[in-house]
Amino acid sequence: MSSLRWPAARPVLSDTLLAVAVGVAALIGAAAAGHSQPDRIPLDAAGAALVLVAAGALALRRRRPLVVLGIVTVAISTYLILGYPHGPTTAPLVVAMYTVAVQLPIRQSLLACAVALVGVFAESFWLAVSGSFGGLVAILPWTGWLLVPWTVGAVVRLVRRAGEEASRERAYAEQLRIAREVHDVVAHGLAAINMQARVALHVLDRRPEQARLALQAISLSSRDALDELRATLAVLRAPGAVAAEDGDGRRPSATLAQLDRLVSRMADSGLQVTVKINGVRSDLPPAVDLAGYRIIQESLTNVLRHAGSATATARVDYRPDALVVEVLDDGNARPGRPLRAGGNGIAGMSERANALGGTLQTGPRAEGGFRVHAQLPIPAPDAQEPGVRA
Fold first, then answer.
1. What residues does each domain of the chain span?
2. How far apart are CA 300 and CA 290, in angstroms?
3. Do 91 and 22 contact (CB within 8 A), yes or no?
4. pTM of the prediction?
5. Helical residues (DSSP H) of the chain, grouped into ranges
6. Cα–Cα dist 151/52, whole Å
7. What is the CATH number of domain 175-383?
8. Which carries the bigger pLDDT value, residue 141 or residue 89?
9. Distance CA 100, CA 107 (A)
10. Which of 52, 125, 249, 300 is the most buried (most CB within 10 A)?
11. 335: pLDDT confidence band, cut at 50, 70 and 90?
């Protein structure tokens, strides 16, 4: 239990230590300042008590920033009105103003700090109203300096908020990437299983042996889908690791090296796929390798689901500066014929390509069927950025 409480106790402890340090420094500074300000009352027990109250309130600065600023303002203002020396006694005010600026919206913190300044220098403002402007002129530089902690705090707040927003965006992008991975694995597996189940039901009574083969294919497809899903989640959940798309050296759960296995599963589901490869396969960046495989997988899954009785051709072109993948089918799509609405397949493929700075083109072919064409750039080794996220 003590280990669980310790992180929460650290801010309180650090603030308490800060309060002690500021209080000691303010007391020493006030005592020293009294020697050079003969017109002020030397520091005594009452003055020291006011300084300690102002400094002690800082122990609660993160919990109640406005309350702490109010206590500090009243204590320091009373200290100055009673005639004690100017100087380092405003240190608690500096810390309190900075804390308010960090924790509260800019307008609210600026108003609170302005009121605090008026309160702290109430004596000088009152003398100015009475016709004695000497004190007012003396405090103007101090007023300017006391706006510095508010400015610093406001800037820190803006920087922190920008960092938090960036973290939220990264988390959202990570969630989308995981959802896309799971969608591709599950959608492909279920599409294959659905097709094989329909074949089994169709021939169950007339050709039980063929139905048995279809059921065996269902078993294999479901096992492969589960294995791939486990591998995908294992990569995504690796502790302390960034996603494979980020180029951290971990291989993704699926690569173009597994294309033959994908084609074999498609054949078991009733879709004949011809693979054509141009160029020599090289060491692709993990993000490009995974995206190429997933685009082909999703394209073939769509053929299986929507193209009717069709065959498909998958082309992979390994170029020095890009990976080009293309899937063509001879299904029932025609130019001018509306496509079936719904689904996230094409949108997901487009997101994958765009995340890598590539392009995706899809649409019916003039001779019939559908075409998916993706070009994924391969960055030069010295230009690869490890922070690319899908």
1. 2-120, 175-383
2. 15
3. yes
4. 0.53
5. 2-35, 45-56, 65-81, 91-103, 106-120, 122-129, 134-203, 208-236, 259-268, 286-306, 345-355
6. 26
7. 3.30.565.10
8. 89
9. 11
10. 300
11. confident
